[in-house]
């Protein structure tokens, strides 16, 4: 189960991992906390009045295409996008948005989803949300709450039969090491890197980023193309001429062929570093 804040997050974080496990016969569920109703339109070709007027429905249709490409199931929690506040001082968050929901209120439908789907592994964001969007931070909070509460029959007693997931991971998709490796690989190939500004921001934002070690690197380079097709399905959010697609796939596969995670909770014995989210849950069979 991968828990995400908005439609498109599932395609930019961990999509190749999910496609790999789907190909291996694993059932994968994406849980999307909000509808992305307050998201900006980031693709100039989609920045049209009729799209803006019906952005919620448009993003719902984009999510349907992405989940079909990835081969995953998907469930909406039904909360309202909080938007990304900007300014100094920051404006207040809109009334009724996901980020302002009490943790127990926001967690109950996720606990229900966990008990219904019965995942062994959950994926979410770190306590800073990966980046400080209020919905990403709330997504972290409800994911941790659901992981810890879903197996306890005394908690959320009306939300289904208890089920305890075994491992909880944080996405480490945009680590400095990965971005640096891709940046160097582009320069070594004589190509202009899209990550020059990223490298500067890593230094400037070092204190604001959660400092988690990568414990688990999942080989999934064969599914990078599927990841990119799922990203492109989110046409309001992803500019096909933007930086997502500047680094050729062959360079990506050579420079960094994994998607990376931090093992935040585990109820099974496992040794790090890992190369499998299910390490300690199922035996590996080598032919």
UniProtKB/TrEMBL annotation:
Q: Which reaction does it catalyse?
A: mycothiol S-conjugate + H2O = an N-acetyl-L-cysteine-S-conjugate + 1D-myo-inositol 2-amino-2-deoxy-alpha-D-glucopyranoside
The species this protein was found in: Actinomadura chokoriensis
Tell me the protein's name.
Mycothiol S-conjugate amidase
Under Enzyme Commission nomenclature, its number is: 3.5.1.115
Q: Which cofactor does it need?
A: Zn(2+)
Listed A to Z, the keywords are: Hydrolase, Metal-binding, Zinc
Keyword Thylakoid belongs to the record? no
Which superkingdom does the taxonomy of this entry point to? Bacteria
The record's annotation in Pfam families points to: PIG-L (PF02585)
User: Which gene is annotated as encoding this protein in its UniProt record?
Assistant: mca
Which family is this protein grouped under?
Belongs to the MshB deacetylase family. Mca subfamily.
Q: Where does Zn(2+) bind?
A: 6, 9, 136
Oligomeric state and interaction partners are given as: Monomer.
* Free-text comment on the cofactor: Binds 1 zinc ion per subunit.
